Amino acid sequence: MTGKALHYFAGGNTARGYFSLYESNFAELEKIFILKGGPGMGKSTLMKKLANEWLEKGYDVEYIHCSSDPDSIDGVIFPALKIGIVDGTEPHVVEPKAPGAIEEYVNLGHAWNSQQLVAEKAEILRLMKERQEAYERAYKYYAEALAVHDEWEEIYIANMDFEKLNALTGKLKTKFFGDIFLNKKADVRHRFLGAATPIGAVDYVPNLTEGLPKRYFLKGRPGSGKSTLLKKLATTAENRGFDVEIYHCGFDPNSLDMVIVRELGMAIFDSTAPHEYFPSRAGDEIIDLYKVAILPGTDEIYSDQIKDVSAIYRAKMNDGTASLSEAKKLHDEIEKIYQRAIDFTIIDDIQKDMETDILDLAKGNTIKSILH
Protein backbone atom coordinates (compact mmCIF):
# COMPACT_ATOMS: atom_id res chain seq x y z
CA MET A 1 0.00 0.00 0.00
CA THR A 2 1.43 3.36 -1.04
CA GLY A 3 1.55 6.32 1.30
CA LYS A 4 -0.29 9.60 0.94
CA ALA A 5 1.34 12.43 -1.00
CA LEU A 6 0.70 16.01 0.12
CA HIS A 7 1.54 18.81 -2.31
CA TYR A 8 2.02 22.47 -1.39
CA PHE A 9 4.18 25.58 -1.73
CA ALA A 10 6.37 26.91 1.09
CA GLY A 11 7.89 29.81 -0.86
CA GLY A 12 6.29 32.31 -3.19
CA ASN A 13 6.82 35.11 -5.68
CA THR A 14 4.57 37.68 -4.01
CA ALA A 15 3.70 41.36 -3.97
CA ARG A 16 6.20 41.61 -1.10
CA GLY A 17 9.02 39.92 -3.03
CA TYR A 18 10.11 36.33 -2.55
CA PHE A 19 8.54 35.12 0.69
CA SER A 20 9.59 31.96 2.54
CA LEU A 21 7.59 29.81 4.97
CA TYR A 22 10.08 26.93 4.92
CA GLU A 23 11.12 27.23 8.54
CA SER A 24 7.64 26.39 9.83
CA ASN A 25 7.56 23.08 7.96
CA PHE A 26 11.11 21.97 8.72
CA ALA A 27 11.22 23.10 12.36
CA GLU A 28 10.38 19.78 14.06
CA LEU A 29 12.52 17.50 11.88
CA GLU A 30 15.40 15.53 13.38
CA LYS A 31 17.41 15.33 10.16
CA ILE A 32 17.55 17.72 7.21
CA PHE A 33 19.64 17.16 4.11
CA ILE A 34 20.44 20.54 2.52
CA LEU A 35 21.33 20.21 -1.16
CA LYS A 36 23.93 22.64 -2.46
CA GLY A 37 24.83 23.12 -6.10
CA GLY A 38 24.06 25.13 -9.22
CA PRO A 39 21.03 25.14 -11.50
CA GLY A 40 20.31 22.06 -13.60
CA MET A 41 22.19 19.67 -11.33
CA GLY A 42 19.24 17.37 -10.76
CA LYS A 43 18.26 18.43 -7.23
CA SER A 44 14.55 18.22 -8.00
CA THR A 45 14.93 14.88 -9.81
CA LEU A 46 16.97 13.45 -6.94
CA MET A 47 14.35 14.50 -4.36
CA LYS A 48 11.48 13.14 -6.46
CA LYS A 49 13.18 9.75 -6.80
CA LEU A 50 13.81 9.46 -3.07
CA ALA A 51 10.29 10.67 -2.25
CA ASN A 52 8.65 8.23 -4.65
CA GLU A 53 10.65 5.32 -3.24
CA TRP A 54 9.39 5.99 0.30
CA LEU A 55 5.89 6.67 -0.95
CA GLU A 56 5.85 3.20 -2.52
CA LYS A 57 7.03 1.77 0.80
CA GLY A 58 3.84 3.10 2.38
CA TYR A 59 5.19 6.29 3.98
CA ASP A 60 3.40 9.64 3.70
CA VAL A 61 5.47 12.24 1.83
CA GLU A 62 5.13 16.01 1.56
CA TYR A 63 6.20 17.47 -1.78
CA ILE A 64 7.14 21.16 -1.63
CA HIS A 65 6.81 22.63 -5.10
CA CYS A 66 8.85 25.43 -6.66
CA SER A 67 6.88 28.62 -7.26
CA SER A 68 9.16 29.51 -10.18
CA ASP A 69 8.55 26.11 -11.80
CA PRO A 70 5.69 24.12 -10.21
CA ASP A 71 6.79 20.93 -11.97
CA SER A 72 10.00 21.06 -9.93
CA ILE A 73 10.42 20.20 -6.26
CA ASP A 74 12.24 22.44 -3.78
CA GLY A 75 11.88 20.08 -0.83
CA VAL A 76 10.40 16.84 0.48
CA ILE A 77 9.47 15.79 4.00
CA PHE A 78 8.96 12.30 5.43
CA PRO A 79 6.85 13.11 8.53
CA ALA A 80 6.96 9.66 10.12
CA LEU A 81 10.75 9.56 9.80
CA LYS A 82 11.19 13.22 10.86
CA ILE A 83 13.49 13.62 7.85
CA GLY A 84 13.50 16.35 5.22
CA ILE A 85 15.46 17.23 2.10
CA VAL A 86 15.59 20.78 0.76
CA ASP A 87 17.20 22.69 -2.08
CA GLY A 88 19.41 24.97 -0.02
CA THR A 89 20.29 27.37 -2.82
CA GLU A 90 18.97 30.92 -3.01
CA PRO A 91 16.21 32.02 -2.54
CA HIS A 92 14.88 29.14 -0.39
CA VAL A 93 17.66 29.06 2.17
CA VAL A 94 17.09 27.04 5.36
CA GLU A 95 19.09 28.38 8.28
CA PRO A 96 20.72 25.49 10.17
CA LYS A 97 20.01 25.15 13.91
CA ALA A 98 22.54 22.41 14.65
CA PRO A 99 24.81 21.78 11.64
CA GLY A 100 25.97 18.20 11.55
CA ALA A 101 23.60 17.12 14.32
CA ILE A 102 20.37 18.01 12.49
CA GLU A 103 21.35 19.59 9.19
CA GLU A 104 23.73 17.89 6.78
CA TYR A 105 25.01 19.62 3.67
CA VAL A 106 25.10 17.57 0.48
CA ASN A 107 27.43 19.18 -2.05
CA LEU A 108 26.40 18.36 -5.60
CA GLY A 109 29.17 20.67 -6.80
CA HIS A 110 31.52 17.67 -6.81
CA ALA A 111 29.77 16.62 -10.04
CA TRP A 112 30.58 19.65 -12.16
CA ASN A 113 33.57 20.44 -14.36
CA SER A 114 34.76 23.77 -12.94
CA GLN A 115 37.02 24.56 -15.90
CA GLN A 116 34.10 24.20 -18.29
CA LEU A 117 31.97 26.54 -16.15
CA VAL A 118 34.82 29.08 -15.88
CA ALA A 119 34.92 29.19 -19.68
CA GLU A 120 31.22 30.12 -19.67
CA LYS A 121 31.46 32.54 -16.73
CA ALA A 122 30.59 35.69 -18.67
CA GLU A 123 27.46 34.14 -20.14
CA ILE A 124 26.39 32.70 -16.76
CA LEU A 125 26.78 36.10 -15.09
CA ARG A 126 24.86 37.85 -17.88
CA LEU A 127 21.96 35.40 -17.70
CA MET A 128 21.86 35.54 -13.90
CA LYS A 129 21.74 39.34 -13.95
CA GLU A 130 18.91 39.36 -16.49
CA ARG A 131 17.03 36.68 -14.52
CA GLN A 132 17.26 38.75 -11.32
CA GLU A 133 16.02 41.82 -13.18
CA ALA A 134 13.05 39.82 -14.49
CA TYR A 135 12.15 38.73 -10.94
CA GLU A 136 12.43 42.31 -9.70
CA ARG A 137 10.06 43.46 -12.47
CA ALA A 138 7.61 40.73 -11.47
CA TYR A 139 7.68 41.83 -7.82
CA LYS A 140 7.22 45.47 -8.91
CA TYR A 141 4.13 44.58 -10.97
CA TYR A 142 2.71 42.46 -8.15
CA ALA A 143 3.27 45.30 -5.66
CA GLU A 144 1.42 47.67 -7.99
CA ALA A 145 -1.36 45.10 -8.36
CA LEU A 146 -1.64 44.84 -4.57
CA ALA A 147 -2.06 48.62 -4.29
CA VAL A 148 -4.89 48.42 -6.85
CA HIS A 149 -6.38 45.45 -5.02
CA ASP A 150 -6.41 47.53 -1.82
CA GLU A 151 -8.53 50.12 -3.65
CA TRP A 152 -10.87 47.33 -4.75
CA GLU A 153 -11.16 46.09 -1.17
CA GLU A 154 -11.97 49.56 0.18
CA ILE A 155 -15.22 49.58 -1.77
CA TYR A 156 -16.51 46.54 0.10
CA ILE A 157 -14.97 47.41 3.47
CA ALA A 158 -16.88 50.71 3.36
CA ASN A 159 -20.08 48.72 2.83
CA MET A 160 -19.42 45.99 5.41
CA ASP A 161 -21.76 45.14 8.26
CA PHE A 162 -19.08 44.19 10.79
CA GLU A 163 -21.59 43.03 13.39
CA LYS A 164 -22.91 40.40 11.00
CA LEU A 165 -19.39 39.29 10.08
CA ASN A 166 -18.44 38.98 13.77
CA ALA A 167 -21.64 37.06 14.48
CA LEU A 168 -20.85 34.61 11.67
CA THR A 169 -17.28 34.17 12.98
CA GLY A 170 -18.61 33.40 16.46
CA LYS A 171 -21.11 30.94 15.05
CA LEU A 172 -18.39 29.10 13.11
CA LYS A 173 -16.10 28.95 16.16
CA THR A 174 -18.89 27.28 18.13
CA LYS A 175 -19.74 24.96 15.24
CA PHE A 176 -16.14 23.83 14.71
CA PHE A 177 -14.71 23.76 18.23
CA GLY A 178 -17.64 23.77 20.65
CA ASP A 179 -16.27 23.72 24.19
CA ILE A 180 -13.31 21.50 23.30
CA PHE A 181 -9.82 22.31 24.58
CA LEU A 182 -7.12 19.72 23.88
CA ASN A 183 -4.49 19.09 26.53
CA LYS A 184 -1.50 19.60 24.25
CA LYS A 185 0.41 22.27 22.39
CA ALA A 186 -0.82 22.86 18.85
CA ASP A 187 1.41 21.92 15.92
CA VAL A 188 1.11 24.93 13.58
CA ARG A 189 2.36 24.84 9.99
CA HIS A 190 2.43 27.86 7.69
CA ARG A 191 2.24 27.26 3.95
CA PHE A 192 0.88 28.84 0.79
CA LEU A 193 -2.48 27.88 -0.69
CA GLY A 194 -1.08 28.53 -4.15
CA ALA A 195 1.62 30.44 -5.97
CA ALA A 196 2.11 32.98 -8.71
CA THR A 197 4.14 31.02 -11.27
CA PRO A 198 5.40 31.53 -14.85
CA ILE A 199 2.23 29.77 -16.08
CA GLY A 200 -0.11 31.75 -13.83
CA ALA A 201 -1.70 30.87 -10.51
CA VAL A 202 -1.27 27.24 -9.39
CA ASP A 203 -2.72 25.54 -6.31
CA TYR A 204 -3.16 22.05 -4.84
CA VAL A 205 -6.47 22.53 -3.02
CA PRO A 206 -8.01 19.21 -4.22
CA ASN A 207 -4.98 17.28 -2.95
CA LEU A 208 -4.75 19.17 0.35
CA THR A 209 -8.45 18.70 1.14
CA GLU A 210 -8.72 15.13 -0.12
CA GLY A 211 -10.31 12.83 2.44
CA LEU A 212 -11.60 15.64 4.67
CA PRO A 213 -15.30 15.05 5.48
CA LYS A 214 -16.12 18.77 5.66
CA ARG A 215 -15.03 21.53 3.30
CA TYR A 216 -16.30 25.09 3.59
CA PHE A 217 -16.02 27.25 0.46
CA LEU A 218 -15.75 30.95 1.31
CA LYS A 219 -17.27 33.12 -1.38
CA GLY A 220 -17.24 36.91 -1.47
CA ARG A 221 -15.47 39.94 -2.91
CA PRO A 222 -12.09 41.53 -2.16
CA GLY A 223 -12.33 43.06 1.30
CA SER A 224 -15.38 41.07 2.39
CA GLY A 225 -13.57 39.65 5.42
CA LYS A 226 -12.46 36.19 4.26
CA SER A 227 -8.88 36.51 5.51
CA THR A 228 -9.94 38.12 8.80
CA LEU A 229 -12.38 35.28 9.46
CA LEU A 230 -9.71 32.67 8.67
CA LYS A 231 -7.18 34.36 10.97
CA LYS A 232 -9.63 34.27 13.88
CA LEU A 233 -10.44 30.59 13.28
CA ALA A 234 -6.72 29.71 13.04
CA THR A 235 -6.00 31.53 16.32
CA THR A 236 -8.88 29.73 18.04
CA ALA A 237 -7.66 26.34 16.79
CA GLU A 238 -4.14 27.01 18.03
CA ASN A 239 -5.29 28.33 21.41
CA ARG A 240 -7.37 25.22 21.94
CA GLY A 241 -4.51 22.83 21.16
CA PHE A 242 -5.60 21.71 17.69
CA ASP A 243 -2.92 21.07 15.09
CA VAL A 244 -3.55 23.56 12.33
CA GLU A 245 -2.31 24.10 8.79
CA ILE A 246 -2.43 27.80 7.92
CA TYR A 247 -2.30 28.55 4.21
CA HIS A 248 -1.27 32.06 3.23
CA CYS A 249 -2.18 33.91 0.07
CA GLY A 250 0.42 33.39 -2.67
CA PHE A 251 -0.09 36.99 -3.80
CA ASP A 252 -0.14 38.72 -0.40
CA PRO A 253 1.43 36.55 2.34
CA ASN A 254 -0.09 38.79 5.04
CA SER A 255 -3.51 37.44 4.07
CA LEU A 256 -4.81 33.91 4.68
CA ASP A 257 -6.58 31.75 2.12
CA MET A 258 -7.20 28.47 3.95
CA VAL A 259 -7.20 26.81 7.36
CA ILE A 260 -7.16 23.02 7.77
CA VAL A 261 -7.78 21.29 11.09
CA ARG A 262 -7.35 17.59 10.30
CA GLU A 263 -8.26 16.53 13.85
CA LEU A 264 -11.72 17.92 13.09
CA GLY A 265 -11.73 16.62 9.51
CA MET A 266 -12.35 20.08 8.08
CA ALA A 267 -11.00 22.74 5.77
CA ILE A 268 -12.28 26.27 5.21
CA PHE A 269 -10.84 28.28 2.35
CA ASP A 270 -11.18 31.31 0.12
CA SER A 271 -12.80 29.78 -2.94
CA THR A 272 -12.68 32.79 -5.26
CA ALA A 273 -10.46 33.41 -8.29
CA PRO A 274 -7.71 32.50 -8.93
CA HIS A 275 -8.41 29.44 -6.73
CA GLU A 276 -12.13 29.14 -7.38
CA TYR A 277 -13.80 25.85 -6.55
CA PHE A 278 -17.36 24.70 -6.02
CA PRO A 279 -18.93 21.91 -3.94
CA SER A 280 -18.44 18.55 -5.61
CA ARG A 281 -19.06 15.97 -2.89
CA ALA A 282 -21.06 15.30 0.26
CA GLY A 283 -19.92 17.50 3.16
CA ASP A 284 -19.13 20.52 0.96
CA GLU A 285 -20.76 23.79 1.96
CA ILE A 286 -20.68 27.38 0.62
CA ILE A 287 -20.39 30.38 2.96
CA ASP A 288 -21.06 33.57 0.98
CA LEU A 289 -19.71 36.58 2.85
CA TYR A 290 -21.10 39.00 0.27
CA LYS A 291 -24.62 37.82 1.11
CA VAL A 292 -23.92 37.68 4.86
CA ALA A 293 -22.11 40.94 5.56
CA ILE A 294 -22.03 43.31 2.54
CA LEU A 295 -24.81 45.86 2.06
CA PRO A 296 -27.18 44.74 -0.73
CA GLY A 297 -26.64 46.48 -4.06
CA THR A 298 -22.95 47.25 -3.51
CA ASP A 299 -21.91 45.50 -6.75
CA GLU A 300 -24.45 47.45 -8.75
CA ILE A 301 -23.83 50.87 -7.17
CA TYR A 302 -20.05 50.71 -7.70
CA SER A 303 -20.08 48.65 -10.93
CA ASP A 304 -18.15 51.18 -13.06
CA GLN A 305 -15.45 51.71 -10.41
CA ILE A 306 -15.16 47.96 -9.81
CA LYS A 307 -14.87 47.33 -13.56
CA ASP A 308 -12.03 49.86 -13.90
CA VAL A 309 -10.11 48.69 -10.84
CA SER A 310 -10.44 44.98 -11.69
CA ALA A 311 -9.19 45.61 -15.25
CA ILE A 312 -6.07 47.46 -14.00
CA TYR A 313 -5.47 44.72 -11.42
CA ARG A 314 -5.65 41.93 -14.02
CA ALA A 315 -3.30 43.82 -16.35
CA LYS A 316 -0.70 44.25 -13.57
CA MET A 317 -0.99 40.56 -12.64
CA ASN A 318 -0.54 39.54 -16.28
CA ASP A 319 2.58 41.72 -16.50
CA GLY A 320 3.92 40.00 -13.37
CA THR A 321 3.27 36.55 -14.84
CA ALA A 322 5.00 37.55 -18.09
CA SER A 323 8.06 38.67 -16.11
CA LEU A 324 8.15 35.36 -14.22
CA SER A 325 7.90 33.55 -17.55
CA GLU A 326 10.88 35.55 -18.80
CA ALA A 327 12.83 34.69 -15.62
CA LYS A 328 12.01 31.00 -16.18
CA LYS A 329 13.35 31.10 -19.76
CA LEU A 330 16.58 32.69 -18.56
CA HIS A 331 16.86 30.11 -15.77
CA ASP A 332 16.44 27.33 -18.35
CA GLU A 333 19.35 28.78 -20.32
CA ILE A 334 21.53 28.79 -17.19
CA GLU A 335 20.53 25.19 -16.48
CA LYS A 336 21.63 24.11 -19.97
CA ILE A 337 25.10 25.53 -19.37
CA TYR A 338 25.46 23.70 -16.06
CA GLN A 339 24.05 20.44 -17.42
CA ARG A 340 26.73 20.35 -20.09
CA ALA A 341 29.36 20.53 -17.33
CA ILE A 342 27.89 17.88 -14.99
CA ASP A 343 28.85 14.24 -14.59
CA PHE A 344 25.46 12.79 -13.67
CA THR A 345 26.99 9.45 -12.64
CA ILE A 346 28.37 11.34 -9.61
CA ILE A 347 24.87 12.67 -8.88
CA ASP A 348 23.59 9.08 -9.04
CA ASP A 349 26.25 8.03 -6.51
CA ILE A 350 25.25 10.89 -4.19
CA GLN A 351 21.62 9.78 -4.45
CA LYS A 352 22.56 6.19 -3.52
CA ASP A 353 24.52 7.45 -0.50
CA MET A 354 21.49 9.45 0.60
CA GLU A 355 19.24 6.41 0.13
CA THR A 356 21.51 4.47 2.49
CA ASP A 357 21.62 7.32 5.02
CA ILE A 358 17.83 7.69 5.07
CA LEU A 359 17.35 3.93 5.40
CA ASP A 360 19.75 3.84 8.36
CA LEU A 361 17.95 6.78 9.98
CA ALA A 362 14.60 5.09 9.39
CA LYS A 363 15.83 1.93 11.13
CA GLY A 364 17.04 4.02 14.04
CA ASN A 365 13.64 5.75 14.32
CA THR A 366 11.91 2.38 14.29
CA ILE A 367 14.08 1.08 17.13
CA LYS A 368 13.48 4.27 19.16
CA SER A 369 9.71 3.98 18.71
CA ILE A 370 9.79 0.32 19.88
CA LEU A 371 11.83 1.24 22.95
CA HIS A 372 9.38 3.99 23.83
UniProtKB/TrEMBL annotation:
<protein>
    <recommendedName>
        <fullName>Novel STAND NTPase 3 domain-containing protein</fullName>
    </recommendedName>
</protein>
<dbReference type="InterPro" id="IPR049050">
    <property type="entry name" value="nSTAND3"/>
</dbReference>
<dbReference type="Pfam" id="PF20720">
    <property type="entry name" value="nSTAND3"/>
</dbReference>
<feature type="domain" description="Novel STAND NTPase 3">
    <location>
        <begin position="30"/>
        <end position="77"/>
    </location>
</feature>
<dbReference type="InterPro" id="IPR027417">
    <property type="entry name" value="P-loop_NTPase"/>
</dbReference>
